[in-house]
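The instructor's notes for this session suggest beginning with a concrete chain rather than abstract definitions. Hand out the sequence below and ask the class to guess, before any prediction is shown, which regions might be ordered.
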Amino acid sequence: DRNEFYVESDTQLSVMKVSGNHHSIIRQRLDSGSKFSVTTSWVGLKIYTEYERVATGVEDFGAFVQKIYEAYDAYLRQTIYDTMVDYAAKMAAPYKQTGSVTAETLRELCETVEMLTGNKVIIMGTRTALRSVTALQNADYISNDMKNEHYHNGLLGYWEGYELVEIPQGFKRNDLNNKLVTDKYLWIMPVDTDQFIKVVNEGDTQMYQITSPDQNQDMTYSAELQTKLGCGVIFNKAFGVYDI
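After discussion, reveal the predicted structure:
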């Protein structure tokens, strides 16, 4: 079932000193892991246009249909990000730090995620969020190349060996008062690891089109998309969040 995922056990075995010459050693059992399901729900979008506007070439119905797919892609990306933010709000130490960014705390969080995952990490965030990391750079160790990089990009590419990756910012659709991505979070993400954000499309996406003036009483053309999807986070690989 592609809506069901297996989460491996994170139980760690402990080696102990024993007196030897016997089998009376405390036995340890690995947890069998667990299964995780992603809740899905229907989402949809429907558009229409007047027959006369299509017939006279004022509007291109094919271009309208392409806008449906673009809107769906934007919705899916936002759903994935919102799922991460909702999950991050519930996280606690040692995976999460809160407050003004300090070199000591950020370094500790990066090292914690590296130790828990066994993978190198990168620091991700919006340009505004990453400026709080760039500001930590010790001026005594800034090279001329780093100065040029900061001059041209406004950010440094690395901080203490950790790559800084900018998350593009934007506005929510039809809403210039709300940004797509929060500037409050730094994401400490392990690289070369399994995807812990699971997107599920349950069944096939349904697409309906009416492109003939004979089908609707008002002669309008219409297109409709419906799909059943869900998004969830599986915590079998740790990541970190710095809530600035």
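Then share the key points. The mean pLDDT is 84. The two ends are 39 Å apart (CA to CA).
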